[in-house]
């Protein structure tokens, strides 16, 4: 029994019951693949169900407002995925009559669709014989074949894609691609896999060489940037508040936030208070709401956040009450703050 046969046999006995596996329709498959980029299935599944209920077809998603899309995406992170998802839905609905491109090369032309996602859709929807190569696949292949190439290096993608193509079951690529990905997710896990239960343990090179914990190799480390945000939760004379939309490129593009003072380094409460008094005329009853700074970790940035509540002797144009505020899409750290500070 060869590598691909063992994997597909294991998959048919152990696969998770996931809704996007019950269809060849490219729309829900595309949705799931975009949502599961950088996201665990357990976290992404509720969002997938919410999206398919709100937008059952690509036309429904295309006709939604960006605000609606971002609100449903709230908390899933990497918000550029949501904006690209919406843009692609508009393109498919408006320019392609709602029909997804039918092959790997054409799928690559869609915004937000890279090589992995195009291969996944092409194989799962159209049974095209193209290999999928995600983190799970890197791990399975590197261990089974004892490949020590740094998976963060420029040459890794080509090397592992060629290897995945060699072992691909070209008669049933959809089944094989699902199998190898699921095997990496459930059996050949990153830390402490139970190799005694692995159906490949008799031929796995990493296991025979006692290198399972060393593979795959990943040397490159991302530099983390620290940023310091001091959010101003301001209430006017009508007990309404004000927010801004982040329109500049960078994190949280087009999401909403309270007025903010950003500093390059940690600063004392007294310094923040001085900045608030300069920035907000007529501010009173200024209070630091959390005794400890909230640290919100993104893939490449750590945001150190404080929240300050105050009154301002004015009436905001377009001021928002609590219910109106909750209709807007916020970064999850701000959404949680709002949920805990009803006014």
TrEMBL record:
The cross-references to Pfam families, in alphabetical order and at most eight, read: HHH (PF00633), HhH-GPD (PF00730), NUDIX_4 (PF14815)
Q: Which cofactor does it need?
A: [4Fe-4S] cluster
Please indicate if the UniProt record lists Metal-binding as a keyword.
yes
Domain (HhH-GPD) spans 35-186
Reactions catalysed, as given in the entry = Hydrolyzes free adenine bases from 7,8-dihydro-8-oxoguanine:adenine mismatched double-stranded DNA, leaving an apurinic site
Q: What does this protein do?
A: Adenine glycosylase active on G-A mispairs. MutY also corrects error-prone DNA synthesis past GO lesions which are due to the oxidatively damaged form of guanine: 7,8-dihydro-8-oxoguanine (8-oxo-dGTP).
Spell out the protein name for this chain.
Adenine DNA glycosylase
Q: What is the lineage of its organism?
A: Bacteria, Pseudomonadati, Bacteroidota, Flavobacteriia, Flavobacteriales
